[in-house]
């Protein structure tokens, strides 16, 4: 099996943070990309954002002006879902909601050809459940990128119970063709990264609740002695506490309330307070004009 034929276009459905990043890597790798979003302004914003990111690469001499122009020319807005009819592969990056994803794929089955692969960027929903009920569930696989997509090399290629191994391999090879380091995984709650990371965050919250040390000290220990690029609190601030909390809840529920994955009450309060991390200007740290400082 090889990567998606370069003659086939890639449809990216959902043009938010992840969809824009996915469209960028696919276009830079030489694929024609059609972006669709229920909010057309999100598509315009994504294309403008990609153009600006690529312009910066040109300014830093990390991309030629000709390659930049060609990549931007490969990006097309689809004003309706019908506009992705010729896609060889769809990458779905819409809201993290099972019913929404199922509904979208059911609609797409009536639009795209039977050989079109349906990939989902879900971070926590069962790929098996997303595919269930479709006419051709074997063509659904997870293609889980990490944020920011152009910078993060890992891509988890997730097989649900019905996923055709040839489809998983095509997604794997396509991710590699887009410059990523893909790994195969089966659809278990949190897949590999979001599962393994749960105890990292949970023990951080427990240490904090027990007043073992403050967040900055725990982060510094993990960075300087533990060899991690970021400690748990700075990482959660980057991800967003709302997103991080809901992934923990989802893994906890998927394991029928296994206490190992119990969400943190302290983090729930941070979400209640709107202290969502960098994007809110405040999380475990405060963000402002100056460098981040620990929140009081
Ligand atoms: P986002 O909120 O930035 O973008 C989602 C976009 O989807 C919005 O522009 C929205 O208008 C659009 N949308 C919603 N319903 C739609 C529908 N039915 N049809 C077409 N467009 C629709 O969200 P983000 O962060 O880009 O996440 C998208 C997906 O990627 C989610 O499943 C999320 O769990 C997953 N993901 C997110 C990561 C992150 O760090 N943000 C990391 C890895 C996966």
TrEMBL record:
Keywords: Oxidoreductase. The keyword Oxidoreductase applies. Residues 190-287 form the 3-hydroxyacyl-CoA dehydrogenase C-terminal domain. Residues 9-186 form the 3-hydroxyacyl-CoA dehydrogenase NAD binding domain. One of its GO terms (biological process) is fatty acid metabolic process. GO terms for molecular function: 3-hydroxybutyryl-CoA dehydrogenase activity; NAD+ binding. Signal peptide: none annotated. This is 3-hydroxyacyl-CoA dehydrogenase PaaC. The chain holds residues 1 to 296 of 525 of the full protein.
């Amino acid at each position: 099996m090889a990567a998606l034929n370069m003659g086939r276009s890639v449809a990216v459905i959902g043009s938010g943070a992840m969809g824009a990043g996915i469209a960028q890597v696919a276009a830079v790798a030489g694929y024609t990309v059609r972006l669709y979003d229920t909010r057309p302004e999100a598509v315009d914003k994504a294309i403008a954002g990609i153009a600006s990111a690529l312009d910066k690469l040109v300014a830093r001499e990390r991309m030629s002006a000709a390659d930049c122009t060609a990549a931007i020319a490969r990006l097309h807005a689809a004003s309706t879902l019908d506009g992705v009819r010729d896609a060889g592969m769809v990458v779905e990056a819409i809201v993290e909601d099972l019913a929404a994803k199922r509904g979208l794929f059911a609609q797409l089955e009536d639009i795209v050809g039977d050989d079109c692969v349906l990939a989902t960027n879900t971070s926590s929903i069962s790929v098996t459940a997303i595919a269930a009920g479709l006419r051709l569930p074997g063509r659904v696989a997870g293609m889980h990128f990490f944020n920011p997509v152009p910078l993060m090399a890992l891509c988890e290629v997730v097989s649900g119970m019905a996923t055709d191994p040839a489809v998983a391999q095509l997604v794997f090879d396509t991710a590699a063709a887009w410059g990523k380091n893909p790994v195969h995984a089966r659809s278990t709650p949190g897949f590999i990264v979001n599962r393994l990371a749960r105890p990292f965050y949970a023990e951080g919250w427990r240490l904090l609740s027990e007043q073992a040390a403050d967040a900055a000290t725990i982060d510094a220990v993990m960075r300087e002695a533990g060899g991690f690029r970021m400690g748990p609190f700075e990482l959660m601030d980057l991800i967003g506490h709302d997103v991080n909390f809901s992934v923990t809840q989802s893994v906890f529920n998927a394991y029928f309330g296994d206490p190992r994955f119990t969400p943190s009450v302290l983090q729930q309060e941070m979400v209640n307070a709107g202290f969502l991390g960098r994007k809110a200007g405040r999380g475990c740290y405060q963000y402002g004009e100056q460098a981040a400082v620990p929140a009081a």
